[in-house]
Design brief:
The protein has 716 residues and is of the alpha+beta class. It is 51% helix and 7% strand. It has four domains: 8-38 and 560-714, Cyclophilin (Beta Barrel); 65-239, Leucine-rich Repeat Variant, CATH 1.25.10.10; 241-357, Leucine-rich Repeat Variant; 447-558.
Length: 716
């Protein structure tokens, strides 16, 4: 993986040019000067915005029409062939695989690269042999990178052995390492692959971004047992990074570079070996990169119950100057089923003191409840009631924490708050009740009727957040005599996709779990729904209900929103999205050539003022910041329509902007920005741009911070 290129000079020019640009049209400004940073994507421009023939292929892609795209793979123009292959990556139709395999031998390297990318999106392992053959003969470095990516996504164990043995030039080592990491994500491993990665990590001549790519496998592989024989070598490599343990700065945000330690601390954390406690605590307390400290906190979380020193280190980290590290430490403490008495006392003392950074206290609340001090959380809820601004996000987090308890007072509060006026608060209470019910249901005399009343009321509230929270609990067969199956079916029939797609999915799952054959007609009806995610959920529910495998049929998708090519052209191939936030300005370069419908959608929302005032409702430290819920601001809403997934060759590097979704083709207005490379998101979520200024602002954003102004600008 290539590090996200950033030119400091470009920052300076951009800051001046964008802020002083003159108006050139409604909602658009032209920057007067610009030094273009190198993009993270390796797909060259094909001038889509000026070519109707390519636009027709994109329209076929959005309509999920395979035949015209396969036909276009035989066009005389190599640009057309490449665009057709690229479009098939989003369609993901298995019937296109034979044509894509033939395209691996296309005379144009661009076509071969897009064909390989599309094959990686098919999940068809039968392509392994052809991809290996293509890799051996391919001379174009971009095409080779995409072939390696595809092998990592679909290759079998035999192909991994050959990939690990492949000799590549230095500038392809990152792609090779990431390919092996992608195998590991799927649980495919081999000793030769581990040895190759260790060699890359241990070579001092290897650039830090490539070593970070090599470390990815160890931090993310599905089966840690595949690499545990190399654990001592990884420890030595991590210890060799001691210069990074010089004491982190007091500033909450510091410049962040490629860092193999980011994933090595995660890897060692997965081993649960007490020998690593001191090593990981050192990285937590003195690492200079806040992201490494976040990962170290998470790695130590499972050790706190048996190691008081670890628990105390996590308590100290609650005061880390980075709120992300503090939240991660609180989350690690809360994840433990129990804590040593001294640690429990320390967190209870910490929790009692009013804190400006409410996000940290909210993340710590489950640990407080588990320690038997739920009364402290109840007291904080009373304190919030007395505020003129009750901060529903904080209240929701505290209610969610009560789900870890078993006290009667907490149960009464949750039942009372399950019909709170604020939907976020109500949904949190219902989710917490669900957690309590999961434990109560295993008891000798579960109080089903008491819980059912709250769940049924939440389901019938006609709110997608509370319905999505209540449905999983109502799938318990203990609620069947009380009418849960009828209630679930009635709620489903009162919903409409795409707005209600998330609770609809949860209801279908619950009907499958309830084990009542009277739900079968509705499930079979949903099996024919035009929306793929609902068909898939119905198929899984029917499989569970009947005990027989059920596959979702192919059904025509609902029409995709039309692309206004004149409007997308107005944004320009080099358009910028500017977000002014409570923490400062972030500037994104957009890529309408790879994701035209997505760019059009965000541009329209920005111009209509829909993005302004919307909070970042989710901040997952060292993962993403997420916002764009233009209707509800709590993460359950959107613009009232859905757009197609546009799977691009923009990797999820640090600072990539992508679209949130509940499944393929369910994107709307919610977007996220990555704190660090997240290769497991590549090809699964629409990536449509990247930060060119303001990465420090992205790092500084906290849950509840808002976008104060949003607009589109462009440079010629």
């Amino acid at each position: 993986m290539k590090a996200l290129p950033i030119l400091a000079a470009g920052f300076l020019v951009l800051g001046s040019a964008v802020s002083g640009a003159a108006q050139t049209g409604p909602g658009h400004r032209r920057a007067t000067a610009w030094i273009e940073p190198a993009p993270p994507t390796d797909r060259p421009p094909d001038h889509l915005l000026d070519r109707p023939d390519l636009q027709a292929l994109v329209e076929a892609q959005e309509a999920r029409e395979t035949a015209p795209l396969v036909d276009a793979l035989g066009a005389n123009d190599s640009v057309v062939r490449a665009r057709a292959a690229f479009a098939l990556a989003s369609v993901q139709e298995p019937a296109a695989v034979p044509a894509l395999l033939r395209a691996l031998a296309d005379p144009a390297a661009g076509v071969r690269a897009d064909a390989a990318f599309a094959l990686g999106q098919t999940a068809d392992s039968s392509a392994s042999k052809a991809l290996l053959t293509a890799l051996e003969s391919e001379t174009n470095p971009v095409a080779r990178d995409r072939i390696l990516e595809a092998l990592g996504k679909v290759g079998d164990e035999a192909s991994l052995e050959r990939v690990a043995a492949t000799r590549v030039p230095a500038d392809e080592l990152g792609a090779l390492a990431l390919a092996i990491g992608r195998y590991g994500l799927r649980g495919v491993g081999a000793p030769a692959a581990v040895s190759r990665l260790v060699a890359i990590l241990g070579d001092p001549a290897t650039a830090p971004p490539v070593r970070e790519d090599a470390a990815y496998y160890f931090g993310r592989a599905k089966e840690p047992a595949d690499w545990t024989p190399a654990a001592d070598t990884l420890r030595a490599l991590l210890d060799a990074g001691a210069p990074l343990l010089q004491g982190h700065p007091e500033a909450t945000v510091a410049p962040v570079q490629a860092n193999p330690a980011l994933l090595l601390v995660t890897a060692l954390g997965r081993l649960s070996d007490p020998r690593d406690d001191a090593r990981l605590m050192a990285w937590l307390e003195r690492g200079t990169d806040w992201r490494v400290r976040v990962n170290a906190a998470r790695a130590l979380g499972g050790r706190a119950p048996a190691a008081p020193a670890v628990g105390q280190a996590l308590v100290r980290a609650l005061g880390d100057p980075s709120v992300h590290v503090a939240v991660a430490a609180a989350g690690a403490l809360s994840a433990a089923d129990s804590l040593p008495p001294a640690v429990a006392a320390a967190i209870n003392d910490w929790f009692l003191v009013p804190r400006e950074r409410w996000q940290v206290a909210a993340a710590l609340a489950p640990a407080v409840v588990k320690s038997g001090a739920a009364q402290q959380v109840l007291m904080k809820l009373v304190w919030l009631d007395a505020r003129s601004e009750p901060r529903p996000a904080e209240r929701a987090a505290l209610l969610a924490a009560l789900g870890a308890g078993d006290d009667e007072a907490g149960l009464k509060v949750l039942i009372d708050q399950s019909d709170a006026e604020d939907a976020r608060v109500a949904a949190a209470a219902v989710e917490a009740l669900g957690a309590r019910w999961a434990r109560a249901a295993r008891g000798p005399d579960p109080p089903a009727r008491r819980y059912y009343a709250a769940f049924a009321a939440a389901l019938g509230r006609s709110d997608l957040a509370t319905a999505a929270a209540a449905a999983p609990a109502l799938g318990d067969s203990l609620f069947r005599p009380l009418g849960s199956v009828d209630a679930l079916q009635s709620a489903y029939r009162g919903m409409e996709a795409p707005v209600d797609v998330e609770p609809m999915i949860e209801i279908l799952k619950a009907l499958g779990a309830a084990g009542d054959s009277t739900a079968r007609p509705l499930l079979e009806e949903a099996l024919r729904d035009p929306r793929r995610v609902l068909r898939q959920a119905a198929a899984e529910a029917l499989t569970r209900l009947t005990g027989q495998p059920v596959a979702p049929p192919e059904v025509p998708e609902p029409p995709a929103p039309a692309i206004d090519w004149a409007r997308v052209r107005d944004v320009g191939a080099r358009g910028l999205l500017l977000l002014d936030t409570d923490r400062g300005r972030i500037v994104f370069r957009l890529d309408p050539e790879q994701a035209p419908l997505t760019v059009q959608t965000l541009a329209r929302l920005a111009e209509a003022g829909k993005l302004a005032g919307v909070p970042f409702h989710r901040v997952a430290p060292n993962f993403v910041v997420q916002g764009g819920d233009v209707s509800r601001a709590d993460g359950y809403g959107g613009p009232g329509f859905a757009i197609r997934s546009e799977l691009t060759r923009i990797p999820f590097e640090r600072g990539t902007i992508g679209m949130a979704s509940a499944g393929k083709d369910t994107e709307g207005s919610q977007y996220f920005v990555t704190h660090s490379p997240q290769p497991h998101l590549d090809g699964r979520y629409t990536a449509f741009g990247w930060v060119v200024d303001g990465l420090g602002v992205v790092d500084a954003l906290q849950e509840g911070d808002r976008v104060t102004h949003a607009e589109i600008r462009y440079v010629p």
